[in-house]
Specification:
The protein is of the alpha/beta class and about 400 residues long. It contains ten helices and 16 strands. It folds into two domains: about 290 residues, Zn peptidases (Aminopeptidase); about 110 residues, Alpha-Beta Plaits (2-Layer Sandwich), CATH 3.30.70. The mean pLDDT is about 95. GO terms for molecular function: metal ion binding; N-acetyldiaminopimelate deacetylase activity. It comes from Alicyclobacillus tolerans.
Length: about 400
């Protein structure tokens, strides 16, 4: 282990790569990240960083306090993997059959560990460091459950966290670039199940049946028009039917067909519109064909929205770390993130870290050959940490102004 006071960029980058590869070899899916949590805690404890453990079944918190009192800002990493069989052929590929860090959460975790190490180094040497940083190692992002577990733990409230900062690798963005934007960045996530009830019978005598497969086919087509003919071309939305199950034999019309799908949007008004129309269209079409439908609609995650002040701190921090020429306007996506839950309850910013080759050949998230550019680890640590410092300075100044005024 290298002492914090001796850390050079080369040393720290090497350590972060080693941590990331250790995590990559042993991926754990949501709510099962026991060894992952232990690895994180052991590494940070070795470097003298305070751990706040036992507040969740998996996942953990690290805490670095400056020499002077002040506000607290949180920096978050997600730590869970996916149930995917890795096909990268890397020497440090997953050793757990059927599980893989196919979304780069091992990268996120290592980067935030790097931020914690750098913060600890400054806390020990800088008498002017006021306030504290809480490093959140969140479980179960892929399940959409982890952010709520973090909030329910009470740790953010106990430390009176002022804002939350997080990042995600982006293989579509050239390696070394940072993407930041104000406002919506990632889509809301809703899911629906439509159970269509018809009347089964012999396939050769369809006139005595109410065919739920035919109803379902009409419904799939109709649902596609909700966006193309119901949502402004200047707005965004997706309604995708990803699963259509019906029947047991080629010559039998079944009683039931089941459609399952997802709904995404970057706008709450569009989100409400699509939910309402799915109900209306499903009930109307099924009734028109003589059938009926049971509808299950679950709102899972809100839009991930970046607050202007926090996004500006991230942008300024990124410019300081990688240069203005490498900071770009982040492209939006209708992929979802449970970081959105933090942005509902406090100022927050989620930004992209480019880890792609820049020629479109990089594999995307959740692909069995997905990989990240490890050379971006230390850069990411520094952007996260500098964003946290700028936030601390702002909130400390606010507190000082309030105290003077009182």
């Amino acid at each position: 282990m290298i002492e914090l006071t001796e850390l050079s960029d080369v040393d720290l980058q090497r350590e972060l790569v080693a941590v990331r590869r250790a995590l990559h070899r042993h991926p754990e899916t949501g709510l099962e990240e026991y060894a992952t949590t232990q690895t994180i805690e052991n590494f940070l404890k070795e470097h003298g960083i305070e751990i706040i453990s036992g507040r969740m079944s998996t996942g953990t918190f690290a805490y670095v306090k400056g020499k002077r009192p002040g506000p607290c800002v949180a920096i978050r990493a997600d730590i869970d993997a996916l149930p995917i069989l890795e096909a990268t052929g890397l020497p440090y590929a997953s050793e757990i059959e059927g599980k893989m860090h196919a979304c780069g959460h091992d990268f996120h975790t290592a980067a935030v560990i790097g931020s914690a190490l750098l913060a600890k180094e400054r806390a020990e040497s800088d008498e002017s460091f006021a306030g504290s940083l809480l490093f959140v190692f969140q479980p179960a992002e892929e399940l959409g459950l982890g952010a709520k577990l973090v909030l329910d733990s009470g740790v953010l409230k106990e430390h009176q966290v002022k804002c939350m900062i997080g990042e995600h690798n982006n293989p579509l963005l050239e390696s070394g670039k940072i993407g930041v934007r104000v406002g919506p960045l990632m889509g809301s996530v809703d899911e629906f199940t439509l159970t269509i009830h018809g009347v089964g019978g012999h396939a050769a005598i369809p006139n005595l049946t109410v065919d739920p497969i035919v109803i379902g086919a009409h419904l799939v087509t109709a649902l596609q028009t909700l966006v193309s003919r119901g949502v402004s071309p200047l707005a965004s939305g997706v309604v995708t039917v990803g699963k259509f199950q019906a029947g047991t034999a080629r010559n039998v019309i079944p009683d039931i067909a089941v459609l399952e799908g997802t709904v995404r949007s970057l706008d709450e008004n569009v989100r409400r519109f699509l939910e309402e129309r799915i109900w209306q269209v499903s009930e109307t079409i099924c009734k028109a064909f003589g059938g009926s439908v049971d509808i299950e609609f679950e709102r899972q995650l809100p839009v991930t929205t970046n607050h202007s002040e926090v996004a500006e701190w991230v942008r300024l921090a990124a410019i300081q770390v990688v240069g203005e020429e490498n900071v770009v306007e982040a492209e939006q996506t209708l992929g979802g993130e449970d970081f959105s839950i933090y942005s509902q309850v406090m100022p927050a910013c989620f930004f992209w870290v480019g880890t792609g080759k820049g020629d479109g050949s990089s594999r995307g998230w959740h692909h069995p050959q997905f990989d990240v550019d490890e050379n971006c680890l230390l850069m990411t640590s520094r952007v996260l940490l500098q964003s946290g410092y700028l936030a601390l300075e702002y909130y400390a100044q606010q507190e000082m102004t309030v105290n003077i005024g009182s």
